[in-house]
Amino acid sequence: MKRQQQGFTLVEIAIVLVIIGLLLSGILKGQAMIVQATIKNTIAEFSGVAAAYYGYNDRYGALPGDDPKANRWAGGEAGTGDGVVAGTYNGACPETVLAATSETCKFWDHLRRAGFVEGMGGRQPINASTGFIGVQTGDGNAVPASILPAPGPTGFTGLMICSANLPDKISISIDTQMDDGVPGTGMMRGIFQTTSNPPVTNATAPPGAYAETGTNTYALCRAF
């Protein structure tokens, strides 16, 4: 006697397809929400550091990191007061700041001691993409007090804030919302990354346009 094999009915198949569609829709929506949250947080970080910088400068009449009177706080290490925050945004900043520590690390220590930024010490904050959030002046080279650094790939000679390891989609959205969406112009510049937390010097240059491949990453730098 033959046993009749039963298959799925059209209704059952339709229900399964609906469930799969709902799951995929939820996953994609969740991913989009994560991307949007990262974009908003990164924009807030750029704006927050700029506000802290201007607040410090207004209160003390000096640049954080370069402040020659930062020893107003017990354990505070003074800068040179030459108007240049020396060092690179991606330098290894120690938790405990010493006299020989670069001014780009003292930048964070001074802001924290003044209560403008949360935390303690000179270590740079980390963004949602595990990239450094740091500052440097021009191309970051050490120069005499009377001479500003030569323009780096960004074209900026003054102090700028950089945030590294940002995925292409996030970088494009941030530059578009905060500036002109072009990596080589405006107040926001993008550097194509080939290494994590790359140096921003004259050896690198902004690309002509952002390329959204899903794998590209950029370091974004914004002038104060």
Describe it for me?
With 224 residues, this protein is α+β, with helices and mostly antiparallel strands. The chain has a domain at 11-61 and 122-223. 33% of the residues lie in helices and 12% in strands. It has helices at 10-60, 103-113, 168-178; strands at residues 133-137, 159-167, 188-192, 217-223. It has a four-stranded antiparallel sheet. Helix 1 (10-60) packs across helix 3 (168-178). The protein is elongated and about 85 Å long. The N and C termini lie far apart (85 Å). Residues 143-148 have low confidence and may be disordered.
Contiguous low-pLDDT stretches (5 residues minimum) are 143-148
What is the mean pLDDT?
A: 86
Distance between the terminal alpha carbons, to the nearest Å?
85 Å
Instruction: Quickly count the helices.
Output: 3
Query: Which series of helices and strands comes N to C?
Result: HHEEHEE
Shape: elongated
